[in-house]
Amino acid sequence: MSVPSRPEVFMISGEQRRLVADGPAIVDEHGVRLDVPPKALDALRYVEVALREGYAVQITLLPHELRLREAAIALEIPEDELRAYLPAGDVSTGPDDSDEWVQLDQVLQLQRRIRANRREEREQRRTGHGVFEEELEPDEW
Questions:
Q1: Residue 65 pairs with which residues in a beta bridge?
Q2: Which of 28, 45, 60, 79 meets the CB 3.0–4.6 Å disulfide criterion with 72?
Q3: Is the residue at 74 inside a domain?
Q4: Within the chain, where are the H helices?
Q5: In sequence order, which ranges of 11-103 are alpha helices (DSSP H)?
Q6: How many domains does the chain have?
Q7: For the segment 65-90, what is each residue's pLDDT rounded down to a tens digit?
Q8: pTM as predicted
Q9: pLDDT tens column, 1-26
């Protein structure tokens, strides 16, 4: 696992927080085993690799609902780009739309879709296939 150049946000749902018998665990120097949820292991691996590679790690606890601006900063999405997804229903706002509260899990899902779409577009440009390939008549070259 390599450490990405951008911050990563990890969040697991209620069901994913359950411990699994004989599942992942942290074992301390005295051999004491501390079970951890399987999905939490992703975050622990990320931190471990970063520290081993000499990076400093900052842990920031985020609430499930954030103001739009805070969500944009935390996920490194331009605020205006995140705001553009609100009318489409990709991210719902909190009970008072004027406050622009958003659900963190929905913003994380949106961020994953945006990244996947951008990777796909880069791959299509790289290979010369897909939506970027157009057939032009010789007089249009």
A1: 103
A2: 79
A3: yes
A4: 40-52, 68-75, 79-84, 104-127
A5: 40-52, 68-75, 79-84
A6: 2
A7: 888 888 888 778 888 888 887 777 76
A8: 0.63
A9: 676 666 788 888 888 888 888 889 99
